[in-house]
UniProtKB/TrEMBL annotation:
It comes from Goodea atripinnis. The lineage of its organism: Eukaryota, Metazoa, Chordata, Craniata, Vertebrata. Residues 47-162, 175-225 form the PLAT domain. This is PLAT domain-containing protein. InterPro entries: Inner_ear_hair_cell_LOXHD, PLAT/LH2_dom, PLAT/LH2_dom_sf. SMART domains: LH2.
């Protein structure tokens, strides 16, 4: 048995290696386990947050796709967080509430949220996201009001949302970038593989973005394009 306490960052291991079975070993079905101190580990502390996700109240706004998010702060970023999607999550006009744990990443700067379904029926219209730090009740809001849909808006299924709140003087600006990718002219240089791009800067990164829609070529990444 391994027990991890997010508030202290301590992980403790309690070995057993015995049956809990009336018909095996000594027939006992209850064990008293003692920690093996040599296996104790100190990990990063994590703090509890309440996460509220607001799906817009417009026709077709809901989704059954698996939703992920990543949160950025002044001291770093969270892991990618997979939001367990029950059959009734992310329905039209609904607020879904989750409890998550994160290390101390300082004052929050932005949130990236996405789903992975690139099919015509997976679109999602996200209204906003709010985060509350349970211990201090610091509150952050991330406004969206856009589709994450291959058939709507700009056809993207990932959104970068700047943080707003009492601790934020000015939210980060959203900036559009024009990305030019030049395929070489040597024989066999083109590809039909899916190509991803991640831009990394002082304030974080964009995460992996699929280069799926070229502005000037129907067939992407061909020789000399």
């Amino acid at each position: 048995v391994v027990i991890y306490c997010p508030f202290t960052g301590i992980e403790q291991t309690f070995p057993c290696g015995m049956w809990l079975d009336e018909d095996e070993g000594d027939g006992l079905i209850e064990r008293e386990l003692y920690e093996m101190v040599s296996l104790r580990q100190k990990k990063h502390k994590k703090y509890p947050w309440s996460l509220w996700i607001w799906t817009s109240d417009i026709k077709g706004a809901g989704t059954d796709a698996q939703v992920f998010l990543q949160i950025y702060g002044e001291k770093g970023k969270s892991d990618e967080i997979k939001l367990e999607n029950n059959s009734d999550n992310f329905e039209q006009g609904q607020i879904d509430k989750f409890m998550i744990e994160m290390p101390d990443i300082g004052r929050l700067l932005k949130l990236r949220i996405w789903h992975e379904k690139r099919n015509p029926f997976a679109g999602w219209h996200l209204a906003k996201v709010t985060l509350f730090k349970t211990l201090t009740m610091d509150k952050y809001s991330f406004e969206c009001g856009r589709w994450l849909d291959i058939n709507e808006d700009d056809n993207e299924i990932v959104r970068e949302l700047p943080a707003k709140g009492t601790l934020i003087d000015e939210p980060l600006p959203l900036i559009k970038y024009l990305v030019t990718i030049c395929t070489g002219n040597v024989s066999g240089s083109g590809t039909d593989a899916r190509v991803f791009l991640n831009i990394i800067g002082d304030m974080g990164d964009t995460g992996e973005r699929l280069m799926f829609m070229s502005k000037n070529n129907v067939n992407k990444f061909e020789k000399g394009n």
